[in-house]
Amino acid sequence: MIPIESPGPDLVTALANARSAVEDHMVRADRAGIIWREETVSELLWVHAHPHISCADFSRKQENRVGADWLWWWVDGSGECFGLLVQAKRLHHSQSQQPHAQLDFGHGDGEHFRRLVGTADRLGVPAAYIVYFGGVEHRYGLSCEADDHTSQCLPCKRRSVSVITALQAGMLLGASQRDAATGTFLYSKPLEDLVNPDLAARPIQDLNLCNVDMELRRLLLTPQVGARLVAKEVFRMVAEMRMGQLSAAVADRVELEDDIIFPDLPLDSGHFSRPYYPYVMRGLRRRLPDTVQHVLNGKPPPEEFHGVAGLVVVYC
Ligand SMILES: [Zn+2]
Fold first, then answer.
1. Count of the separate structural domains present in the chain
2. Is 59 exposed, middle or buried (0-12, 13-18, 19+ CB in 10 A)?
3. Which of 188, 207, 211, 302 could cross-link to 248 by cystine, CB 3.0-4.6 Å?
4. 145: CA distance to ligand 1 center in Å?
């Protein structure tokens, strides 16, 4: 059995502190002229979030099999959990005289994106990016644009570690790297907000609410805790982007496998590459998959983890 602790609201503070620590690293590195790397920042993030998280790092033992993507499972005291396959991505800037922010989701001719999405499909969870925007003073034009914005601006500082789903990132694939940076800053959300019950208390507005069953509607419209809260906040990002698209045209529904809490879902895709309800909600499970339990018990990662660099379990 894995040790399930329930840190409650302290997890928000722990993730905010971890974000603050990695922001400090990114700022100091930039000032010193050191190009900080996603791997280093991710490592620091999880070190500072301990003991709210546990990690299993496959990269040392399984050099030839790993990718750059980490499998996150958010687990709560009831055993319910939400899985997400995550690739870390950092903000870059152009080398022009007036540098602007850039973000490259299409790296390697789109191969990295396709691999992330494909591996997530195999694991039956949504894919996402953790985006490191760096310190406020090194954003090259990205900011909250408030009149009182400064280098100490809290809303902007909180964005230094943000999350965006691959469904949303896929919409930015054809854009310039400059537009991808701007769009991601607009549509992503700070990592710590995924577990903040105060923010999650707001009902979700979605075009397909009338097509979902009572229990899921309750999740989307009322305050949540634990894994359901994380699933709700990930879904909120997608739903908000969906609201900006055309009206819903949906009658079809899809049924997903056992252990998925909401198996009966609308098939509307909007402008996304695939139906967004099942894409996000397939990550919400009644219990951790056996393969994850095995890895947490010290067993070697099974074949289905091919291409995964490691596992992060967040006790939410
Ligand atoms: Zn600001």
1. 1
2. middle
3. 207
4. 6
How many helical (H) and strand (E) elements, i.e. helices and strands, does the chain have?
Answer: 11, 12
- Cα 138 to averaged position of ligand 1 atoms, centre (Å): 12
Distance in Å, CA 157 to ligand 1 centroid? 8
CA 109 – ligand 1 centroid, Å: 33
Flag whether 5 is in a domain.
no
For residue 209, report the distance from its CA to the centre of ligand 1, in Å: 33
| Beta partners for residue 81, in sequence order | 75, 285
Question: Looking at the domain assignment, is residue 1 inside a domain?
Answer: no
User: Could you read off the pLDDT of 263-287 as tens digits, one per residue?
Assistant: 889 999 999 999 999 999 999 999 9
d(CA 239, ligand 1 centre) in Å: 24
| pLDDT tens for each residue of 15-44 | 999 999 999 999 999 999 999 999 999 999
- Does 294 fall in a domain? yes
Look up the domain containing 242 and give its range. 10-315
Is there a contact between 281 and 260 (Cβ–Cβ < 8 Å)? Answer: yes
Compute the distance from residue 218 Cα to the ligand 1 centre, in Å. 34
